[in-house]
Amino acid sequence: MHASTLAKPSGILLSSHTQHVWEEAEYFLKNLPYLSIKYKELAGGDLQEELCLAVHWHDAGKEDDVWQRACQQDFALYETWCKANGKIAAINAPATYQEYTLDCFIAQKASAPHLQKAQLRHEFASLDLSKPEKLSLAVRAAIAAHHGKLHHRHLKRWKEDANGRFSDYWEGLVYEGNIIGRREKPFRKWELTLRERYKVTAVRSLLQLADTRASRKEAGKQLPTLTKFEYEFPHKQSDGCLSLRPVQQQALACAQQPVSILRAPTGSGKTDASLLWAKEQVDKGRADRLIIAMPTRFTSNALALNIGESVSDTGLYHSSAWYSRFGNELKGSDRDNAKEVHKLAQLLATPVSVCTIDHLLMCLTGTKEEHHSTFFFLANSCVVIDEADFYDSYIQANIQVLIKALRLLKVPILIMSATVPDSARQFYEITDSIQEAQREAEPIRHLQFVGEALAEVNAHPNDDLEDEEISQELSEELQRVFEQMINTGQGIVFANTVARGFSFYQFLQKSLAGQDVPLIFYHSRFTEPDKKYLEEKLILHLGKDAWKNRSAKGIAILTQIGEMSINISSPIMYSDVCPWDRLAQRIGRLNRFAESEKGVVFVGSPMSKGAIYPAPYGSYNQASNVWEATEAFTKTLTAIQKEYAGGTPKLITSGEFVIKVNELYPEPEALMSHAESNRNLLYNCMRDNWLIVPHAKTDEENGQAGLWKSRDIDAQDTVYVRPPSDTDAAEGNDQRVFPFLNYDAFRSYQLEYSISCPTYLIKKGLKTGQLTVFAYSIGQDEKDIHKLYIYSGYNDEIGLAALGSNYPILNAPPDDLANFG
Prior knowledge:
metal-binding; Rossmann fold; disordered C terminus; nucleotide-binding; nuclease; eight-stranded mixed β-sheet; nucleic acid binding; seven-stranded parallel β-sheet; 3 domains; alpha/beta
């Protein structure tokens, strides 16, 4: 390596950059020693040795005459700019180079034009230069992928750069990706590729992280500190011994097993139990981090916020979750550093990561470069699966694959649920019996069926049919329940859909006019800042302290996102019928703090157009124009009608819920053909994409990779509640396409103002004139025009609940839209 060889057009030397990358790689290995221990155990190799080779060779291709000449020419352009602006092109002045690149952007010219035109990817040249070393596949793959180019999307570059000099390296990698388990049966090939993926991905992911951190440091940015898993149980006796509840004792008792199922009622201390279980895994050298997988990202947001004070760095996987945590509270370098920590959380590289089942499943597909790093850190973790949706065979089939993969990777697993059925053991192929904590005294709860709960909504997602307004007309029984809530000033209402919840909201809003009773409507179609605001409002009015201080007052209308992790309570509740296991979660908010002698939940059968409306626990038959309920929904409705009808509420306990869930799922449900086909697609993704990223459409928001989906739900798209402000824009606005300065500027706007919605509602919104189409571009790529949808009727009380209906828009359309489209 020549002493003057450059690594970047900012003037940083290749020798310096390589040393910086190794320093960061060493930092990872030193602070996370378990990574090397597990690699030796599972892959049989020396992780430090492999990573050292990858770092040494990863940028060696920058010595290639073509690349180096172009870099030197671009550095000369930078020096010329510095002289013209009275500055010095020093490598220890990164702010100057950033000023230069911004100046080039404003002038609409490239800051490194010669490198852009060189037609030579340095990582390809690195493979060529290192060929005599006969590096392992793990090292070669890390070199090829450290800028995301080990991807079918970049095939043309592999074939054409340097007049086709690197084509053979691509073909060789394709061959090595296909040869694993070539003569084995499909499942055995899946096992072999999974193990090989771990071996290769370890070096691949750590090189990328080390290179990114080194480049960030060279640019004068802060680096987030790597911390280890630490947890201190908060409840202790006077003598210092742990004051454990039964579920926490049971969690420790099953910590020696590779996979366990723990059944415990809501409110029994399961969160601390899972953290104690994880501490045991880490202390015994079976993992170095904890991942808690929740049913939805809304429940994962709430849980992450709840446990954040009792454990070392708690990462939130989803970008919107980051906003829920920090919002606009952090400024400047603190906010920038928090974003970097969040990037680590997205890779599951924080000591505790709270995410969804869908996020873990997505990383198995290998359809994005980041999936490989996520997969590696998943393999070094212990995993808690909290309240899986047993009523949904589609997601259960996917979870079955996830559990098999984790067991093969020797990842400890704890499945926790208030009502997990006995049949789960057979479905997940777990031989040990379900662990059940000794039952404690629990709040007294009663249930009463109130018959048909009419709330007219447009139950059909097909735009070809005539749209109907959401009606405030409710059945008499339902009105009587709501009147009780109004009279006491307290209540929780669970609606199965946002549309039904909005119908309830309209009725209660009119009925509460002039009364000092807060009405809070909480569902998934709010912006992240408003979700955070509403969660705080719920806790303020119906949380534990409010009941303790005797100031509890308010009626909350919740959809599925309120079933878990929102720590509120009321002595009176209404719920639409849903499968027993979901109903148990909802009733966990009933009389939760024993604020009343008894709590009563009134359960109604959701109706629309004179028929049962089971959404989302069913599917719409386009041929017959009717909703078809799942078996779990139908069985639950039948049982409630039979056992809890009449004028007197009947006692129901957590133990009875377990019995009813076992009756609901007496044996593993036979997979429907589409669920089985989808599961097989996941197996195929894992076999085919373990080394090279495919050219497949990946949608993280909706849990979709190519044809595979994590859940069988309607397609989603994004709606924005206001147009971008001038602070998000670059200069040079042409009055037709809104220009974002860069991708970070767009993501900041997206995090604050976007909401995911079903596409059929977006179509309706366009038809009714509620949505405006808005054009934008990002950075210098003016020809790459995107569109987004702006909804002008949003407010922090109903969110997007009225989208697609004839409900009057409360806000005037923003004038900012006049020149865009």
